[in-house]
Write a structure and sequence with these properties.
about 170 residues, alpha+beta, four-stranded mixed sheet, three-stranded antiparallel sheet, about 25% strand
Length: about 170
């Protein structure tokens, strides 16, 4: 009975010295004592949920074109690279490399570069010495795209085929 009354009326709480009191429309004369704290907490949770629902923004799925554009805009804001490179030639990508821990950098590079040149540039960004020239091909560090993580990118391939916002991995 108390819960039905409390749910149907806009209530306000205040704390007195001995217990919690419920006040209807802020009039102290209409005070109703609630001794069951579980009922009070239940009403409080319901009020918080209703307040959250009022102000929540609609969630956008991550696979929508709008969310991909927003992710690319955020990537462009935090990307580092050569500022003298014209906007039309920039390729914005996220590069991840696992050394002791997973390191991630947002960068932009020239889209006319080959994969080998880009790999050299990324290794200098991560402060890793490049020994690919002296190692056999099975032990060389290679660049992988998130769209095809099982096959490495060809060192002579040009980066124009990689879309903006792509994630590249160095292994």
């Amino acid at each position: 009975m108390k819960t039905a009354f409390l749910k149907s009326v806009l209530i306000f709480w205040y704390s007195c010295l001995h217990h919690l009191c419920v006040v209807e429309d802020k009039l102290v004369s209409n005070k109703v004592e609630v001794s069951n704290h579980a009922v009070l907490k239940n009403v409080e949770i319901q009020l918080e949920k209703s307040e959250r629902k009022k102000y929540q923004k609609p969630k956008i799925k991550k696979s929508t074109p709008l969310s991909r554009k927003v992710a690319l805009m955020k990537l462009k804001q935090s990307a580092m690279g050569n500022d003298s490179l014209p906007q039309s030639q920039r390729l914005y990508i996220t590069v991840q490399m696992k050394t002791d821990s997973l390191q991630t950098k947002n960068v932009f590079i020239d889209n006319c570069w080959t994969v080998g040149r880009a790999l050299d540039h990324f290794l200098t960004l991560f402060s890793v010495t490049n020994r690919n020239n002296s190692l056999p091909s099975s032990e060389q560090m290679k660049l992988y795209a998130s769209t095809s993580p099982n096959e490495p990118l060809n060192f002579q391939a040009i980066l124009k085929t990689i879309p903006n916002g792509e994630t590249l991995f160095i292994f």
